[in-house]
Amino acid sequence: MTTDKNSLEAKFEQGLFASRWLMAPMYLGLVISLAMLTIVFTKELVYYAAKTFTLTADQAILAILTLIDLSLAANLLLIVLFSGYENFVSKLDLGDARDRPSWMGKVDFSGLKMKLIASIVAISGIHLLKVFMEIGKSAGTGLDTDKLFWLVTIHLTFVVSGVLLALMDWLAARTSKH
């Protein structure tokens, strides 16, 4: 009876462990998302590059902020892609890859959370900066204070969330040392 139970339990646990591979298609989807983001980045770059000689300084800054925003989103996608796969599915066996980023294999779930919230705060901050730069640029349109209020509120919510996550990680690290 005990052997049957142990055998059944072992098979169940093996199946449970193998279920992590159900995440693999999701990471493939993230690779496709990265390709989509690359196409959007390239499209924006070509659009703004063609207008280089006619852009004002403010327009050039907004164009650059748009490209930085897309780049940060792509970086975030890569971090989630590599770290998530290595933390939840399988280690990447790349042999002797010289150009392997130093953080690969070292970002745990807690680090992934912090990188995620930091990227979200940066992306939100860039978007907010773009909106601030647009204030007063549109002739004849009034300032949408409600929109601005909500953008600032959402950004501050991201910032506070990041600080609280960092505090929770710090407290968890302190309690686990005792």
Automatic annotation (TrEMBL):
<keyword id="KW-1133">Transmembrane helix</keyword>
<protein>
    <recommendedName>
        <fullName>UPF0114 protein D2N39_09485</fullName>
    </recommendedName>
</protein>
<dbReference type="GO" id="GO:0005886">
    <property type="term" value="C:plasma membrane"/>
</dbReference>
<dbReference type="InterPro" id="IPR005134">
    <property type="entry name" value="UPF0114"/>
</dbReference>
<comment type="similarity">
    <text>Belongs to the UPF0114 family.</text>
</comment>
<keyword id="KW-0472">Membrane</keyword>
<dbReference type="Pfam" id="PF03350">
    <property type="entry name" value="UPF0114"/>
</dbReference>
<dbReference type="InterPro" id="IPR020761">
    <property type="entry name" value="UPF0114_bac"/>
</dbReference>
<keyword id="KW-0812">Transmembrane</keyword>
<feature type="transmembrane region" description="Helical">
    <location>
        <begin position="148"/>
        <end position="172"/>
    </location>
</feature>
<keyword id="KW-1003">Cell membrane</keyword>
<feature type="transmembrane region" description="Helical">
    <location>
        <begin position="61"/>
        <end position="82"/>
    </location>
</feature>
<feature type="transmembrane region" description="Helical">
    <location>
        <begin position="116"/>
        <end position="136"/>
    </location>
</feature>
<feature type="transmembrane region" description="Helical">
    <location>
        <begin position="21"/>
        <end position="41"/>
    </location>
</feature>
